[in-house]
Amino acid sequence: MVLARSTLSLIPFLFSASALAQSQPQSMADCTPLLDNVQRLACFDRLAAAQSGRAEAVAAAAAPAAVAPSGSAFPPPRSAEADPAASIDPTVEAANGYTMSSHWELDPKDKRGTFIFRPHRPNYLIATGTYRPNDQPYLPFREAAGIDKGLSKGELAFQLGFKMKVVETLFEKPVDVWFGYTQNSFWQATNDEASSPFRETNYAPEVMVVTPLNVGILGANLRFLNLGFVHQSNGQSSTLSRSWNRFYAQVGLERGPLSVTARVWKRVNEALEDDNNPDIIDYLGRGELSGTWRLDGGHEVSALLRHNFHTHKGATQLGWAFPVAGPLKGYLHWFSGYGQSMIDYNYFQRSIGAGVMVKY
Questions:
Q1: Mean of the pLDDT values across residues 11-35?
Q2: Is 238 helix (H, G, I), strand (E, B) or coil?
Q3: Of 144 and 69, which is predicted with more confidence?
Q4: How far is CA 284 from CA 176, 244, 266, 353, in A?
Q5: Backbone torsion region of residue 158, taken as left when φ is above 0, otherwise alpha when ψ lies between -120 and 50, otherwise beta
Q6: Are 209 and 182 in contact (CB under 8 A)?
Q7: d(Cα 126, Cα 31) in Å, to the nearest integer?
Q8: Domains of the chain and any CATH numbers
Q9: What is the spatial distance between Cα 342 and Cα 351, in angstroms, rounded to a whole number?
């Protein structure tokens, strides 16, 4: 009977404990009286969940609502129709939208670090034809080799170039140091009787110090200043040797799809007995102006002008690049004047070419 009374006396306590276990606890003290381990653990879990929910509600109430122009509490999601930029991959946008900043890494968003190969001058392969090849420099060597065949009017010309940043933010200033290299080759590919020689190859390594600018001039934006040193030669010897060294200053202007660069240079003089081309300035002048107009659909029209105002000699080069597939473009090229190659620096030449260009 004592056991029964004891058991009966526990019934109200068990019912109250069960109710406590099922009700929402307000503090740890509400869970402590539970004797059953499972019920006590469940009580603590409900207490933790309730406290977490209250904290989130307080944070949501304290945060100011972001009101969109439409008056809703949250801005609408970006869609390709409402915002075309939302559907553009940043890497695709950079590849399709050339700017001087992307080419020279002028702005912080365009920085890529050091020792990364980057495009420099256009890379192309074209078949060219000229109305009057420059045979004169090669005559002594053809006679010595017993070759009667002269130069062909048609040849393949290609240009390869790259640049690489070697120092970024020199002395913690907005100044980058670049190394660049450009190679032009002129190949008499169809001249079988003369053993299809490479008529001329020009090599041009250079060092450039580039700093960004942001100055408005006549509606255009002056974007950068480049101070550099370039060596150019054809790697030949004897009477075929041509070379010169220059210091130059270059600025770039940009206005929408039009980019223009202007360069002036000062030749490093050599001893007369070592100079292969002492009058090269008379034909190539002291500077050049080049520009590119980028049209819709990936088309590009380019021009390069050189002129010596004392001798009235110079050169004009025109180009048209049009899309083919990805970075590959078709390329039409026209040149008239002096200095298409080092061996032709003092020889007037007109040529026209067609081929492909790779643009990144």
A1: 54
A2: helix
A3: 144
A4: 29, 12, 12, 22
A5: beta
A6: no
A7: 86
A8: 2-62 (no CATH), 92-358 (2.40.230.10)
A9: 16
Distance CA 66, CA 88 (A): 26
Q: What is the DSSP string of 141-184?
A: HHHHHT------SEEEEEEEEEEEEEESSGGGSS-EEEEEEEEE
Other beta carbons within 10 angstroms of residue 191's beta carbon come to: 19
Structure tokens at 98: 């050339």
CA 261 – CA 289 distance, rounded (Å): 6
User: Which among 299, 217, 204, 305 has a CA at the least distance from the CA of 253?
Assistant: 217
Beta-strand relationship, 258-267 and 300-308: unpaired
Neighbour tally for 263: CB within 10 Å: 18
R_g (Cα) of the chain, nearest Å: 37
Please tell me the distance from the alpha carbon of residue 210 to that of residue 250, in angstroms, as a whole number. Answer: 9
pLDDT in tens, 222-242: 999 999 999 999 999 999 999
Provide the annotated active-site residues: 231, 233
Determine the pLDDT at residue 24: 62
Structure confidence by residue, pLDDT tens digits, 131-190: 899 999 998 888 777 777 789 999 999 999 999 999 999 999 999 999 999 999 999 999
Task: Judge whether residue 306 has pLDDT over 60.
Answer: yes
The structure tokens 């020199």 sit at 170
- Give the integer Cα–Cα distance in Å for 344 and 275: 16
Predicted confidence (pLDDT) at residue 263 exceeds the cutoff of 70: yes
